[in-house]
Amino acid sequence: METEGTYDVQAIRAQFPILSRKVKGKDLVYLDNAATAQKPLAVIDALVHYYSHYNANIHRGLHTLADEATAAYEASRTAVKDFVGASSPDEIIFTKGTTDSINLVAHSWGKSFLQEGDEIIITSLEHHANIVPWQMIAAEKKAILRVIPIDDNGILDMEAFKAMLGPKTKFVSVIHVSNALGIINPVEEIIRLAHEQHAVVLVDGAQSSVHLDIDVQTLGCDFYVFSGHKIYGPTGVGVLYGRRDLLESMPPYQGGGEMIKEVRFEYTTYNELPFKFEAGTPNIADVIALKAGIDFINSIGKPAIRKHEEMLLEYATAQLKDISGLRIIGDVKNKVSVISFIIDGVHPQDLAILLDNQGVAVRTGHHCAQPLMHRLGIVGTTRASFAAYNTLEEIDVLTQALNKSLKMLL
Q1: What is the pTM of this model?
Q2: pLDDT in tens, 202-235
Q3: Which residues are catalytic?
Q4: Among candidates 242, 268, 264, 244, which has minimal Cα distance to 254?
């Protein structure tokens, strides 16, 4: 089957070298995109070009290589600013990833502004990266961590959230799209309700940044975080967007070079934004290559990619529902291209091994969302997640591989 319209999935696939390899003698069918997306040649070439032509430290040297590296690094910051709709590149902080970005906010903002008895609200859908940092800072500051419940389908109980909100609510940190189920949360409403109580809101965009159109000013969020490797960029680089006034009010997260203005043994003054939060030599090559990942997405357009992914999701959902004993977890309309499922009498890990033997890469387990799995009464799921380069034929391969595996397991 071919994708309808002008979307040329084969031309897109040709940009990804890894998609031509074989696994266990079978053509690779890569369906673990919610964990990390594969990298187009443009990203790989950007890394090689930096190390081959202008490897140098940034912001400090006066020689040609340093100038070129600095210009490329800051070009990525501008690209990210445009990608999320920030008002200024100064509101874009480069980190190691989503987890690092959340920890930065939790420890810098949290240590400065949380007081005993204050309340932090998260959801039952959160990744561990948006749970543990808040547990840590809540314990340190004697604050209270509250959790928005969900129904059996994974939908947030917004009435319960409204009831939680009050004068003690100081911070709300919510996942935009569930990494485990693909469900899109109503973050616009969450932000509006939280702001009515003068609470600060962080949106975990690790999954939404690649699928949804993001404009942080339209959303109205105070912080927005995501990882480069999920938007076809390199690993080891992430982004923290923060409103300028909030970032300026927060102390540095780490000390060292770059984040200083002047150092004396008696005192230190700190650099301006965004450098105040980027201590030491940064991950220069991967930040530079991040722009190539963004350029790849922009070259196709998120609307076109989303339409393609929605087609894949609809087709895969219909195919999997025909498999006896298979139950999709989080089977709702408002979601991205992720299908998480369980099969009666089959352990997800056993299934993953058999699928891998047939060249199909999926993710199994609790997906770093153990409290969610506990709430749903399951140990874990098998998750297939689709990207710009996946095809209907690959879903057919997945379905065939599942049926073959079940004959061995049941």
Answers
A1: 0.96
A2: 999 999 999 999 999 999 999 999 999 999 999 9
A3: 368
A4: 268
